[in-house]
């Protein structure tokens, strides 16, 4: 597997395709998003990685400053722009109640989410999918992005029900953004 990573070393989706750079998700960078589990641009602990990478697929704890008063819903997106795919790989999409200002470890679990959390479809499942980059591909960036929306997302952009909507359809359905915050974690499998 390390050979495959070396062969694909220069192939990466790139940050341009992140939700953060979508025209409809632009806004003031005023939500201070952080985690007690890792610092900005620091290595994420193995417990937060996928089981096939030796972890537990346990979403990290997150905390952020209160959303603006007019926030109807929060949208949390976790993406890997270093995946050797055409677009960043989506590790999590979740809708949150606007009163929520923190998530405990494991709160993004598809089977047992925290109160006020609605995990949606991600890259290959539902809920949080921990990092599992190809061995030897180099460091990967995992971008946790939080958006305070003025209107709730009730369906995908194509009209699909939220339960089955693809991540890009959910992101495209997002309306005006009042505030947003970003936290980048790193992980590499040698």
What does this molecule look like?
By secondary structure, the chain is mainly beta. Helix content is 7%, strand content 23%. It has two helices and seven strands; from the N terminus they run αββββββαβ. The chain has a five-stranded antiparallel β-sheet with strand order 5-3-2-6-7, with no helix packed on it. β2 and β3 (89-96) form a beta hairpin. The longest helix is centred in the C-terminal third of the chain and has 7 residues, at 167-173. The radius of gyration is 16 Å and the shape is globular. The relative contact order is 0.27.
Number of strand elements: 7
What is the general shape?
A: globular
Strand arrangement in the largest pleated sheet: 5-3-2-6-7
Q: Biggest sheet, in brief? A: 5 strands, antiparallel
Proportion of residues in helical segments: under 10%
């Amino acid at each position: 597997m390390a050979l495959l990573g070396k062969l694909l070393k220069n192939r990466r989706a790139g940050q341009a395709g992140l939700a953060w750079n979508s025209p409809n998700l632009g806004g003031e960078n005023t939500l201070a998003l952080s985690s007690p589990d890792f610092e900005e641009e620091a290595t994420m602990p193995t417990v937060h990685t996928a089981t096939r990478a030796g972890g537990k697929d346990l979403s990290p704890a997150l905390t952020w400053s209160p959303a603006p008063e007019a926030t109807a819903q929060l949208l949390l997106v976790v993406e890997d722009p270093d995946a050797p795919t055409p677009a960043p790989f989506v590790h999590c999409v979740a809708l949150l109640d606007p009163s929520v200002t923190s998530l405990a470890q494991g709160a993004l679990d598809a089977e047992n989410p925290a109160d006020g959390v609605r995990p949606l479809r991600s890259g290959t499942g539902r809920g949080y999918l921990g990092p599992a980059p190809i061995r030897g591909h180099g460091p990967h960036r995992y971008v946790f992005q939080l958006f305070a929306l003025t209107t709730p997302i009730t369906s995908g952009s194509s009209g699909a029900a939220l339960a089955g909507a693809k991540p890009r359809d959910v992101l495209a359905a997002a309306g005006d953004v009042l505030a947003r915050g970003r936290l980048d974690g790193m992980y590499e499998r040698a």
